[in-house]
Specification:
glycosyltransferase, alpha/beta, Glyco_trans_4-like_N, Glycosyltransferase involved in cell wall biosynthesis, transferase, glycosyltransferase activity, Rossmann fold, globular, about 45% helix
Amino acid sequence: MTHGRTRRVLVLNHFALPRSQGGGTRHVELFGRLSGWSHLIVAGNRNNNTQQKFESTSPDFVTVPVPSYASNGVGRMLNWATYAVAALSVGFRRPRPDVVYASSPHLLTPLAGWVLAKVRRAPLVLEVRDLWPRSMVELGYLAEGSHLHRVLVGLERFLYRSADRIVAVAAGWERHFASFGVPAEKVILITNGAEPDDFTPKLTRDKARAQLGVDGFVAVYAGAHGPANGLDLILDSAKQLTDCTFLLVGDGLDKARLVARAREERIDNVRFLDAVPKEKLADVFAGCDAGLHTLAQAELFKEAMSPNKLYDYMAARLPVITNVGGELEQRLIAAGCAVQGSPPSGESSLPSLAAAIRNLADRSVDERATMGAHGRDYVEEHASRTVMAARLEQLLDDVVRK
């Protein structure tokens, strides 16, 4: 507490969602656990995966109107710019915050945060959830060295140097920040994660499977259905593993295409479900045998990743299969909760992912249960929301004491 009052943090996250929505509830879960701080989260009023409007009734979570978009083009950039301007308006109307906390991936949000921090004379904490524009280059959306790329890199450098502290969600980005002259002590790691208690199902396994209409070995993917998520690999694997069932839960820019592909190619063992709120996700997971985490193959993903969906599976005691490769995959394999789905150097992703699913499907129920228990233990120790909220609270306290 400062001078007898609760301190205020203004959180700008274009894509934040309340717990009633399926998707990115990171900030609701983290900031809601702080002591001695009140928070206001400002988000766009459309779910980034579904593009559907939603409303929030919480005084701690307000939305601003943003236009919908259907592809990676002008509409998407207009969506970003609209949010940034509207978030500025909210920030100027509300009481002065003690800290402005602005989250990427797109850089207009932290730019708006910088303006607010300057005008309201508050420290700026920049949260980096994706290394833009580098990830756009690696995924083929942006030409390296182009005029737009140079502008974005310049903005990235400016924001890194202007922020009082930088929050990174993944270990492994140290060299990237250092290349911009950011000292290591300016960066704190607050990973994505999950709270194990949020994934205690209300249904038994048998009732969950009856509601889903599934039997046999069931693998689930729950998350965004976008170009970066590599979901064609799951459809390709399903064509080979006809005795397994695959549930794809969520929405995104690629979902309609994926549904059409499954229909046209008669991939009948893949089922598409709508996104569900986190409190209902536990009951979906209760009927499944493994969690799938796939990504398009990009070197950046191998370097560092901290995917929420992976920790959700582990919190729900599901053994996981991931094709991300790199240090994260090896760490989870060493923890005894994951099967390697990434390809050896120079080989195709498809045989590796299908072989990993087959490997897990052929294991005994008891062995998979043991792997699931190891995963939940890992989350409790290293990636729970409670652990990360304590780290966030310490960061905010330190920033206002500077």
